[in-house]
Amino acid sequence: MAPAIEDAATDPATFWESRYLTHRGESGRVWSGSVNAAVEREVVDLAAGSALDLGCGEGGDALWLAARGWSVTAVDISASALAVGAARALQEGLADRIDWVRADLAAWQPMMRYDLVTAAFLHSPVELPRERILRRAAAAVGRGGRLLVVGHGGPPRSGSGEHDQNALPLPTPDEVLASLHLDDGWVVETNDLVDRHAIRPDGTAHPVIDTVLRVRRDR
């Protein structure tokens, strides 16, 4: 996670709402709208149940899960991002399968346990207590359920699209695992660095590395 930017937009809600309003492309979205590749790969063979998508953004993962039978609670701090996801859910006949929740994950508490909790690219250039949020996410996994954490494996990018050489290093899967403080009732199913190609705004591809951690609560 990059260190907080010291300017007037350090309030997380203000920062992300502004970003989702000002960075939209011709599609009306900031992101592609597709499921993250690592989420698809790690979840596609799991039986559908209840899912919690933390930092869901415009809902690409939540919509994919719902289309495969999951009942999804999708949480994000940006009302504009959630509105994009909710509109797509309505268009695709998935509105009854997704509960869109606007909340700051720094304070929000899950009220139930889930079969799957996902946190994909939960990074921020403004304040975000990521480790605390992920420990809370683990506590929201029911017996037999899974926590999936996907992150960037290289230096964060600056607003110009270039790597920010002054940013703090991003955690490895081992470091994420250690920060969760899990007891021996958990089993590590995936702990990996995965290569993929990301698409720049100009349409060109560039190689990136994702960190992927999937753990299962056995008791």
Helix fraction by DSSP (H/I, runs of at least 4): 25-40%
Distance between the termini: 31 Å
Q: Enumerate how many helices there are, as a single number.
A: 6
Order of neighbouring strands in the sheet with most strands:
3-2-1-4-5-7-6
Low-confidence stretches: 1-8, 156-166
Count of DSSP strands: 7
Radius of gyration, in Å, reads 17 Å
Strand content: 25-35%
Q: Mind explaining what this structure looks like?
A:
The chain is of the alpha/beta class and 219 residues long. It has six helices and seven strands. A seven-stranded mixed sheet has the order 3-2-1-4-5-7-6, sandwiched between helices. A hairpin with a 5-residue loop joins strand 6 and strand 7. The longest helix is centred in the middle third of the chain and has 13 residues. It is globular, with a radius of gyration of 17 Å. The N terminus is likely disordered.
